[in-house]
Design brief:
The protein has helices spanning 29-40, 78-88, 100-106, 108-116, 162-168, 182-194, 223-226, 259-265, 288-294, 317-332, 337-341; strands at 50-54, 69-72, 93-99, 122-127, 173-178, 199-204, 228-230, 238-239, 244-248, 254-258, 304-311. By secondary structure, the protein is α/β, with parallel strands linked by helices. The strands form two sheets. Strands 2-1-3-4-6-5-11-7 form an eight-stranded mixed sheet, with helices on both faces. The chain has a three-stranded antiparallel sheet with strand order 8-9-10. The longest helix has 16 residues, at 317-332. The model has no long low-confidence stretch (mean pLDDT 91).
Length: 350
């Protein structure tokens, strides 16, 4: 699209379909769908340039409810389909909708390689810590000791931390949000839409049928002050009404401390607590800081960061491939498929 072409003005209704939305009453997916429609209304991309690709799971019905192009693909393989589409059609805005089972179990390798390659796609992982579509088996994010139909004596597995996994794959954009916080969810989706490269968003999403209130501690009235740590680039990391903050521990990990205690630890004659408490920097090239943020999670959600952990500029895979093809064409001209197929590395077997 040229700079002279006016950007389309869409509304949430423009990207909504006439299909009946078939999720269980109270499912967090409804909120994600509603906020996605709002987020896309202002990104300046026409509907015919948007594509939603899903695998298998409750969340994977998402493409049916968006008035855009879409694929409902196979279990765990949505990132592979999205990679192929983005490479072939770099002009499209490609979104992957997946769940904790779809993305982190059978689809784990597809997910990490799409992130490490920095393919310019947006991946939304709906994390309800359970297999919902198949009726309540434990998933890769279920807590240890989880009693389900497939683990009647409690799960023995140590759960994945999706944000840590994405950062370990060196994803250029990693964020977390919650289905019930509509404003925060919309802002994170918009940030992902604007990012050039692979964007990964973990969404804490409630399954009211098979794992109700999995994130209840974060939805209590006091959670915003006492548990949730809302990250804003360039802003001091504070929570508990500003009385608590984060600082680096002796081994590079992050620890929560009282702001007054941090100030006192500096000793007389020194500045205030701002010198020891961190200011959020989502643009740090080294992902170790963002990884340390992701490791604050505990089973009781005592300190839970939400927002954009990391957002850095890196060349995307599809961009590099396009440049490589253009360079090859400039050197040797149009390719000859017949000559390639009958080249020196072929054999005729009689």
């Amino acid at each position: 699209m040229s700079t002279a072409t006016p950007l389309p003005t869409l509304t949430a209704k423009d990207v909504a379909t006439d299909q009946d939305v078939r999720w269980c009453p109270g499912c967090g997916d409804y909120s994600v769908l509603a906020q996605m429609k709002k987020a896309l209304a202002g990104v300046g991309v026409p509907r015919e340039k948007m594509v939603f690709i899903s695998g298998i799971g409750c969340s994977s019905r998402f493409p049916y409810y968006m008035n855009t192009y879409g694929f409902h693909t196979i279990h765990g393989r949505a990132p592979a389909f999205a990679t192929g589409l983005k490479v072939a059609r770099p002009d499209l805005s490609v979104w992957v909708i997946t769940g904790d089972g779809d993305a982190l179990s059978i689809g784990g390798n597809h997910l990490i390689h799409a992130l490490r390659r920095n393919v310019n796609i947006k991946i939304l992982l709906f994390n309800n810590r359970i297999y919902g579509l198949t009726k309540g088996q434990y998933s890769p994010t279920s807590e240890q000791g989880k009693v389900t139909k497939s683990t009647p004596f409690g799960s023995l597995d140590h759960p994945f931390n999706p944000a840590s996994l994405a950062l370990g794959a060196d994803a250029s954009f990693v964020a977390r949000t919650i289905d019930s916080d509509r404003r925060h969810l919309t802002s994170v989706l918009r940030a992902a839409a604007d990012h050039q490269g692979a964007a990964f968003i973990e969404i804490y999403q409630n399954c009211p049928i098979f794992n109700d209130d999995a994130f209840a501690p974060l939805k209590e009235a006091s959670a915003t002050d006492q548990r949730l740590i809302k990250l804003e680039h360039g802003e001091p990391v504070r929570f508990a009404g500003g009385t608590r903050g984060l600082r680096f521990g002796p081994h590079g990990d992050l620890e929560a401390v009282e702001v007054a205690a941090a100030a006192a630890a500096e000793g007389p004659g020194k500045s205030d607590a701002e010198d020891t408490l961190i200011t959020h920097d989502a643009h740090r090239a080294d992902p170790s800081y963002a990884f340390a943020l992701s490791r604050l999670d505990t089973a009781d959600f005592r300190h839970t960061p939400v927002g954009v952990f990391r957002q850095v500029e890196q060349a995307s895979y599809d961009q590099l491939m396009a440049e490589q093809i253009d360079a090859a064409r400039s050197r040797s001209g149009p390719g000859d498929l017949a000559a390639l197929l009958a080249g020196n590395d072929t054999w005729e077997v009689s």
